[in-house]
Write a structure and sequence with these properties.
Length: 659
């Protein structure tokens, strides 16, 4: 339930007030309750009694209702502020943002040349941040315009109540994301002339048509932009008319991908061509589910999680179809290429997730990024220039060379239809490896320049995926988590090379002996991970575990499809962790039952030494899959149902905790 508060403290400043219009717009935007607050103290009292998010708007905003609806339903973060491109007028709060986060807000003269926009006079405050909103409102009402050592009395001259409130909330360190207006209209008006112009601008835009166009991402990859988004909005509109939900569209896209994988496995030319077509259509639907969510404002944590997991699962099912098809066509290494492609892609995605988290942390701590003028500074400036030059050759090359999902789908569809599964797998593996090397090198240089740690800002052991053994190991004096983990991954790569070259001649005890080489990485579980490059640790641990499992499979003469299936289940588990990180969710309910990366590796090593590597891998993989499915059911069905019953149960329980 969303409470909307129209802050009417400045409504009497001019002859034209918009209070009644804004109250009605807040209702149409989805607010369950709308209140008028005469001043900041009254706003604080209303917000303090709220049991959900709070939408706050001033009285000088003229905008489409969709602007307020998008702000109220924005999925990017708990607290979101409307940010306009209008130059900051006197008394208006200027904004500086990085990576979509508001990192500073206040008078334009205080921000100097770092102003990136102007506060739009409206914000949505997440439930967990409502206490900060209440405290900021009362502090600003008392004349305090900052917190901590910078606290001082006296409001900014000429600043409206909503501007001073937003500046006060930002000063308290509340993580706020910027919501930009595109295609729709939003203006803050100061007089009758401004009001007339803003109302004319609003009337000139077809709101529904603009919302449909807004459902398409503003910046997407080359293939998606020119070969999907040019016609996918028509599918989005049709889906909305058919009352399909984004989750239903996601399920249909999964069915298309599975059908394509089956056709790739069949292997004859008509099947391969049809599979390529289905793969393309499945990707279109994969874009449509997000567009439909944005168009209908039908967002949910479950839908976001499912979309993230489905993207990866579909891709790897397609790899399985290609691997089976290549093997059936007589190529010896079909499954091996599929396993390699899946491993490279997963490890690469782990670096994507953690580099994004690192960049967000650096944006929240801009002083830590400090200039210095080194190579990282120059790379960052060059990247910013390229990203700003939208549509240029360098812009599209930068977006394409990293091998995003649209380009991967297109490459697979074209190569499998023209040349077959083996060529498709080789093409995907080569491009993914080159993209990994390119992004890895540049990100490492930029991360060294940022000098910001990120892994130690979360539950390190959880995101390392440590099990009971690693959690109980005492911290070792070495205290080099990245070096220890990279050593473990390199050792497992050497073990895999030995297994591939030696085959059945490799003694069964070798994997158990190699397990010892993982101990230094396991001993880092309790060591601080605040180094500039420690964001690479989760990816290196994934690489070490996958390589060890593959090597055990080769030494134990395990069927390649069993090895693929086992690593596939591991990727589901690890993508679940990263999806929860991105969606700001807690650990999976049954995470402890997954044994941790070192526990799973020990089980495989013991199975290999007693001569049951295949049975051990298949059994452990099945067990992990059951745990994963049970954990998903608990997290998204059972526990939310219990929480809903508990909230609706005893009288007065609806207030709940602000968290």
């Amino acid at each position: 339930m969303t409470l909307a508060i129209v802050l009417a403290a400045d409504a009497a400043a001019g002859p034209h007030t918009l209070v009644e219009r804004l109250v009605e717009q807040c209702r149409r935007a989805g607010a369950s309750e709308v209140r008028r607050a005469a001043d900041l103290d009254e706003l604080a009292a209303f917000a303090e009694a709220a049991t959900g998010p709070v939408l706050v708007t001033g009285t000088d905003l003229v905008a489409h209702t969709a602007v307020l609806r998008h702000l109220a339903t924005s999925p990017v973060g708990p607290t979101v502020a409307l940010v306009l491109t209008d130059p900051p007028a006197h008394g208006r709060t200027a904004v500086r943002e990085e990576r979509g986060q508001v990192v500073a807000a206040g008078p334009a003269e205080e921000l100097g040349g770092d102003v990136t926009g102007t506060f739009g006079g409206a914000l949505r405050v997440g439930t967990a941040d409502v206490p900060a909103l209440v405290a900021a409102a009362r502090a600003v009402a008392a004349g305090v315009v900052a917190v901590g050592p910078a606290a001082r009395a006296g409001a900014a001259p000429g600043g409206s109540a909503v501007d001073r409130l937003f500046a006060g909330l930002t000063a308290r360190g509340t993580l706020t994301f910027a919501h930009r207006v595109r295609l729709l209209v939003a203006h803050r008006v100061a007089d009758a002339t401004d009001l007339t112009g803003a109302e004319a601008a609003v009337a000139a835009v077809d709101e529904d048509r603009a919302e449909l166009r807004l459902s398409v991402k503003e910046r997407d990859d080359f293939f998606t932009t020119y070969f999907v988004s040019t016609w996918s909005p028509h599918v989005t509109k049709l889906s909305a008319r058919l009352r399909l939900t984004p989750t239903v569209v996601t399920m249909i896209s999964i069915a298309f991908a599975v059908a394509a994988a089956v056709l790739f496995a069949v292997g004859d030319r008509p099947a391969l061509v049809l599979g390529g077509v289905l793969l393309y259509l499945g990707f279109v639907l994969d874009c449509v589910d997000g567009q439909l969510a944005r168009y209908t404002r039908n967002f949910s944590a479950w839908g976001g999680w499912l979309d993230t997991m489905a993207d990866r699962a579909k891709e790897y099912v397609v790899y399985a179809g290609l691997g089976y098809g290549a093997t059936a066509a007589g190529y010896r290494y079909g499954w091996a290429l599929a396993i390699a492609a899946m491993t490279v892609q997963t490890v690469r995605h782990m670096t994507d997730t953690w580099y994004g988290a690192l960049h967000d942390e650096a944006a929240r701590r801009p002083k830590a990024v400090g200039g210095g003028g080194g190579i990282g500074d120059r790379l960052n400036a060059a990247s910013t220039r390229v990203q700003a030059d939208t549509g240029s050759l360098s812009y599209w090359l930068k977006r394409t060379v990293v091998f995003p999902i649209g380009e991967r789908w297109a490459l697979i569809a074209i190569t499998v239809a023209l040349f077959g599964p083996l060529v498709a797998l080789v093409a995907v593996l080569v491009w993914a490896a080159l993209a990994f090397a390119y992004t890895g090198a540049l990100r490492t240089l930029r991360a060294r320049w940022m000098r910001v740690g990120v892994l130690d800002t979360v539950d390190t052991s959880l995101h390392r995926d440590d099990g009971p053994a690693a959690r109980r190991l005492p911290a070792v004096p070495w205290r080099r988590p990245l070096e220890s983990t990279v050593f473990a991954a390199a050792a497992m790569a050497a073990l895999l090379v030995l297994a591939l070259r030696g085959g059945d001649a490799v003694p069964r005890w070798v994997p158990l002996a190699a397990l010892v080489l993982l101990l230094p990485a396991a001993g880092m579980a309790r060591v601080p991970h605040g180094g500039a490059l420690d964001w690479l640790v989760p990816a290196a641990l994934r690489a070490a575990e996958y390589l060890f499992a593959i090597a055990v499979g080769v030494v134990g003469d395990v069927p390649a499809w069993v090895i693929f299936g086992y690593v596939f289940v591991l990727t589901l588990h690890h993508y679940d962790l990263t999806a929860r990180l991105e969606k700001r969710k807690v650990a999976p309910p049954l995470h402890a039952a997954t044994l941790g990366w070192e526990g799973r590796s020990a089980v495989l090593a013991l199975a290999a030494i007693v001569g049951f590597a295949g049975i051990g891998m298949a059994t452990l993989g099945t067990y992990l899959l059951v745990v994963f499915v049970a954990s998903v059911a608990l997290a998204w069905v059972v526990l939310p149902a219990r929480a809903a019953r508990a909230t609706a149960g005893p009288v007065g329980a609806g207030g709940g905790s602000p968290g």
